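PT: before anyone asks, these are the final sequences, not the draft ones from last week. 285 residues across everything. Please model them as a single complex and drop the result in this thread when it's through.
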Amino acid sequence: MDKGTRFIIVSLGGESYAMPITRLLEIAVPQAIKQDANLTEVFEGKFEFRGKWIPVLNIKKIFRLTGKPGTALLVVNSAKGVLGMLVDAVTEIIDTAQQPVPVPRGVINPTLQYFGGILRHRDNLILLLNEDGLLP
Amino acid sequence: MKSSYLLFLLAERLFGVKLMGAIEILPWRPSRRVPLSYSYVEGLLDYRGAIYPVHNLAKRLGLSKAGPIGFTAGQLESAAGEQSIILLEENSVPFGIVVDSIMRMMSLDEPAAAPEKVRGVDPKYVKGFSREEDQEIMILDFERLLHAD
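LR: through. Structure below.
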């Protein structure tokens, strides 16, 4: 039996981020994103998912990364409801028994809850996205 | 009482850091950037089983403005290839600092009390000064530097 946790690894602005796969509902093509003037600028629009409209986050805007919004749409179950998020690409799915290491103190303002920890993978450090802390 | 210090240069000033435990000196390398991190944090470095936040000490101390070189962030980036990263610990918390060059190890007396005014550096980050012949060595207070938040 595999006791590890399965994570989806995505790339954003050339760096890798991870999310537990249990939170992922679907990977979609962001063709049908509709503009919605009621959403703030961190949203790219809304997307119809299983008969309901969900907000779609442009994570690059939240993280102040440059470049176009990503071209892969992840539909994610967060504590604040189902949401979509745009990433550049889904690169792989990994199984790991690692416990994520907390982000050290003194790196980021502790009120920003975007990262749930750090994973090591293939000589790289991967930031774990906290899907519950992404929505404003 | 004398203790061992590692002396390094940053923006043409001489600094000293007290050697408490293990210390590693690496050629500068890129760290894993963390979006929205403090502007003086270059990122995270995974080295021998520990994850070190790497602080750009010149930015942290505001030396990029007041330093005699007057370099900008862009020039800092391009000069980065010649810099070093010192990995150390303060109260068993690992961290790294980016410095211009490593000078040498030496034994110094406890620094004289923190001065009220320090040219170009916020005095709250300065523990005091030591002297070696005619050179003034600024001893930094890393506990304050690390836990400003």
